[in-house]
Amino acid sequence: xxxxxPASQEHARHDLELxxxxxxxxxxxxxxxxxxxxxxxxxxxxxxxADLLRLATSLRSDLPLPxxxxxxxxxxxxxxAARRLRLPAWLAGAxxxxxxxxxxxxxxxxxxxxxxxxxxxxxSVLQTVGNAISGPxxxxxxxxxxxxxxxxxxxxxxxPSAASLPGAMGSPAASAGPTAALPAxxxxxxxxxxxxxxxAGGSLPPGAEGMVGASASPGSTPPQAAQxxxxxxxxxxxxxxxxxxxxVGLGGLILGRRQGR
Amino acid sequence: xxxxxxxxDRRDRRTRAAPVIExxxxxxxxxxxxxxxxxxxxxxxxxxxxxxxxxxTHYQDFLFALVVRMVGDxxxxxxxxxxxxLNAYRNLRSYRGGAVRSWLARIALNAATDxxxxxxxxxxxxxxxxxxxAWQPPTGPEVDPEQVATRRxxxxxxxxxxxxxxxxxxxxxxxxxxxxxxxxxxxxxTGVSLGTVKSRIHRGRxxxxxxxxxxxELFRE
Lengths: 261, 221
Known about the structure:
The structure holds two protein chains of two kinds. By secondary structure, chain A is an all-alpha fold. Chain A is built from 13 helices and no strands. Chain A is elongated, with a radius of gyration of 35 Å. Chain A has helices spanning 4-12, 16-23, 30-39, 43-61, 76-84, 96-116, 122-141, 146-152, 160-163, 172-175, 183-186, 208-216, 234-260. Helix content of chain A is 58%, strand content 0%. Chain B has two domains: 19-127, Orthogonal Bundle (Rna Polymerase Sigma Factor, Chain: A); 129-221, Winged helix-like DNA-binding domain superfamily/Winged helix DNA-binding domain (Arc Repressor Mutant, subunit A), CATH 1.10.10. Chains A and B meet through helix 2, helix 3, helix 4 and helix 5 of A and helix 1, helix 3, helix 4, helix 5 and helix 6 of B.
């Protein structure tokens, strides 16, 4: 017992993976061979080598082979269903996931930049994203689009102060300019001064009053500022775009994962 | 000293540098199995379900044996294999040539990994059905009953120990030791480097030996 104690301590310092590699006959460098030769003088390493050999042999020959419980051939109906679920070839397989991951990354980056830029009206951004997702369907069901209404019948009488605010992006007047390409923005126009707490007066943020005023008294203010491209808050655009891209990317990742299995 | 006594052909096949992912005949063309599989894939791609089902017939036993050793119970394995064949059918266009066997193994192992991940989230003890006699190979009257009992005992403890080692190591060991894939094929199937494959196999065997330390007598007989 006493002589085996130092041997065990010595064995604890041995590289067992080297012994395992030697069992498989993996190519070893000259240095590794020398180390292995020294290690195999240790009885425990020799026993380990022999055991690993037995295990490898047993894995090959002794593992029970379970009988297959059923036939896995596909019926025409199963195959048809599988085909219907298939993505288009250009989007399937290995292409979708990198694309979706890239979309996610760009989206998150835009969100970060959008958050970092000061002056973003975040609640309106969320509303904008919501409208962008649900807006078209709603507008179609109501017999026309906010975009059409805004582009076809611009309100040149919008308050100039509204154009300088993020909230002003909801104004039809703002959508008459380059913002007309953003139908979601034009769909969230306050319906009337009587709706919500805004009409109480006095509690509104500075610019929002102008919006309310614009719809309450059309024709009372000059239109020049409302036509300006500067009426789009870039931070809000970044946030909205970022959130949309991230959502699309996440959807793509989930879809790609299912398809790639 | 380095000669471990393993069958030489097996070791040589695994360590040679020649590409082994696409088995070739000595003349340089694809092996008969590969040529047959590629022809079947082409026919399946043109909408011939019978051709795909022929592939299923060739590989369903192999895939089921592979998956059941990964997930440990037959019901889950059957579901995984069915899903794997469906995914293969759905993604036939993603087959880029090479061994269909490896391609199917990769699809099935991915599906098995999902099952194991779900199981980790919701742990449940699967019924240890490898104690069932249906798992055991049929034996004739000429076989020594003691030998049969020993083999069964070894198989049982090995299967149990396999389920207790890490998933990556188990995958590598099942592919290498049980199914006979070589390092390069395993690297292609699992998407890791050759060195990682070797390391997983070596560490997996060491882990098995550690787990079976008290039962090694069974293997020394």
